[in-house]
Amino acid sequence: MNAAYSRPAGRFVYRVRDDVWEWDDDVYRIHGFEPGSIEPTTELIHASKHPEDLERVKVVLAGASRDGGSFAVAYRLRRADGTERQVVLIGYGDPGGPEVEVVEGYYIDLTKDFAAQIREETHRAVAASAEARATIEQAKGVLMMAYGVSADGAFAMLEWWSRNHNVKVRDLAARLMASTQSQPIVKGLHLSLDKLLFDLTSRWSVTGGDDR
């Protein structure tokens, strides 16, 4: 078996009356088989579906085989080596007479697209989480300075307001920081901080502290 294949799509033909499937080389590879190494059967095709998706796919294929018309169904495909792929099966049941004789279409392997989407969503979630944590830490710092409480005490204050006013902690922290950028929390607090910083750095310089 060869797990690699050049194209993520392959063509199939299903002859309804004879219950015969025909695959091109790429459909074999999507299923994890060397081209021509096995005979595709309805039983094999059903076995390759994820159990949670099987009935849904069977209903779609049965409808196309009975009534004709176009269809598209996405599902999880289990390959011969046990790995799982995300595929979509699209096709058309051709009513060449009173009954549908042929159903044909394509297997399209979307696994890479799904993986890329998951990676992107994970990246966004991690970035958003990091940003939220940073904002919460900043808000804690503001409360620690304004109220003279510890980091745990500042977070407890945020949690109290969050719980009693039905606002998420991260949203409350973001609103608090946005407000502090436009106006001081306590009138004259920034002047007091300037004086404190001046006094601290002056004493540090006199005692010969690190000049970094």
What is the gist of this entry?
This protein has a 5-stranded antiparallel beta sheet, sandwiched between helices. With 212 residues, the chain is an alpha+beta fold. It has helices spanning 25-30, 42-47, 51-67, 111-147, 151-165, 169-182, 189-206, and strands spanning 9-15, 20-23, 69-78, 84-94, 102-109.
Distance between the termini: 63 Å
Q: What integer value in Å does the Rg equal?
A: 32 Å
Strand order of the largest sheet: 2-1-5-4-3
Low-confidence stretches: 1-7
Roughly how much helix do the residues carry, as a percent range? 40-55%
**Count of beta strands:** 5
Characterization of the model:
The structure is a single chain. It contains seven helices and five strands. It has helices at 25-30, 42-47, 51-67, 111-147, 151-165, 169-182, 189-206, and strands spanning 9-15, 20-23, 69-78, 84-94, 102-109. Residues 1-7 have low confidence and may be disordered. With 212 residues, the protein is of the alpha+beta class. The protein has a five-stranded antiparallel sheet with strand order 2-1-5-4-3, sandwiched between helices. Helix 4 (111-147) packs across helix 5 (151-165) and helix 4 crosses helix 6 (169-182). The protein has two domains: 9-109, Beta-Lactamase; 135-204, Arc Repressor Mutant, subunit A. Strand 1 and strand 2 form a beta hairpin. The longest helix has 37 residues, at 111-147. Helix content is 53%, strand content 19%. This is Antitermination regulator. GO terms for molecular function: RNA binding. Residues 116-177 form the ANTAR domain.
Topology:
Elements: E1 9-15, E2 20-23, H1 25-30, H2 42-47, H3 51-67, E3 69-78, E4 84-94, E5 102-109, H4 111-147, H5 151-165, H6 169-182, H7 189-206
Antiparallel strand pairs: 1-2, 1-5, 3-4, 4-5
Helix pairs in contact: 4-5, 4-6
